[in-house]
Amino acid sequence: MYPSRFRYEAPRSLAEAIGLLHEGDGEAKVLAGGQSLVPLMKLRFATPELLVDINNIPGLSYQTQDADGTLRIGALCRHADLEHSDLLPGKQPTMAAAAPLIADPIVRNRGTLVGSLCHADPQGDWASVMVALGGSVVAQGPGGRRSIPMADFVTGPFENVLAPDEIAIEAVVPPHRGTPAGGYLKLERRVGDFATVGVAVAVETTDGIVTRAGIALTGVGGATIACTEAAQSLTGQALTAQAIEQAADLAAGVSRPRTDHRGSAEYKRHMVRTFVVRILSRTGPAAGEQAGTGEAEPGPATEKAA
Ligand SMILES: Cc1cc2nc3c(=O)[nH]c(=O)nc-3n(C[C@H](O)[C@H](O)[C@H](O)COP(=O)(O)OP(=O)(O)OC[C@H]3O[C@@H](n4cnc5c(N)ncnc54)[C@H](O)[C@@H]3O)c2cc1C
Predict the structure, then answer these.
(1) Would the CB of 122 count as within 6 Å of ligand 1?
(2) What is the C-alpha separation between 16 and 54, in angstroms, rounded?
(3) Which of 8, 11, 37, 260 measures 20 to 30 Å from 189, CA to CA?
(4) Angle at CA 83, nearest 5°, toward 226 and 248?
């Protein structure tokens, strides 16, 4: 199907883009990578009167680290830029693990992390990663800039808190205070699919003790699920097999999977538990206790953890 008729503008500055969105009075949409918006327009699930293409605005493709370790991902930083990033490996294992698991190479070449957060698909992988990392989104509108914690950014499936004339200009990940570890594991029917089950884990340790933990789930509820209790159970503990099992049980307990053609609810809950154990078992003393070497069994899932 063809999209319904729309006006197209490709401004060259943020101020111009915000002005156009303001003029659009709720009937305008930002176009970033177009990998979610264009399919929706072709299906006529989205029928914006005005498309504001931000791809000609210079200076939004960055991935940078501030002196204090804060990571900033610009609105035009593509999934592929993060997949091939020099910045993430070693420093940000959860993001480094997730980047190659988003869709397929064609989608990764155009789609953006910030666009994925704005799209707020309950099956979007980046939202779980950012929730686990305690990230935030910086938005700019006619009234200036504001920072929105990721936990407050998504208000429902395909809904976010942005005003119609605001643009998300970057995603921000706070600096870690200890040694970062974690990963992202995704069960998918075929490579490139959306997650049947996705688990993001981010931990920071100092002298073997967890100083901060975040766990979030993709695809096993109507929205990204933050496993707050599971994360809290790890904080202040060494990553022993017992602590890991407890966190995995708590994470599986808050998942709300549904039985469908991709598997039973029970199977999906089991996979949440398995993935939490698998990622955490590669960190800390439990690495030696689990599966001998700490390496996970190859399973049906796509594996990436550090
Ligand atoms: C075949 C296929 C497979 C996919 N598989 C996966 C997958 O496995 N995992 C996954 O997470 N995603 C998947 N996706 C989605 C993909 O990651 C998209 O790139 C992403 O969801 C949206 O990013 P985008 O830059 O393409 O945004 P767009 O499509 O341009 O925009 C999406 C929405 O966000 C809004 N938006 C975008 N950027 C901004 C901004 N800066 N400020 C304000 N609003 C903005 C747009 O107005 C629109 O409403 C898949 C897509 C396809 C086509």
Answers:
(1) no
(2) 10
(3) 37
(4) 30
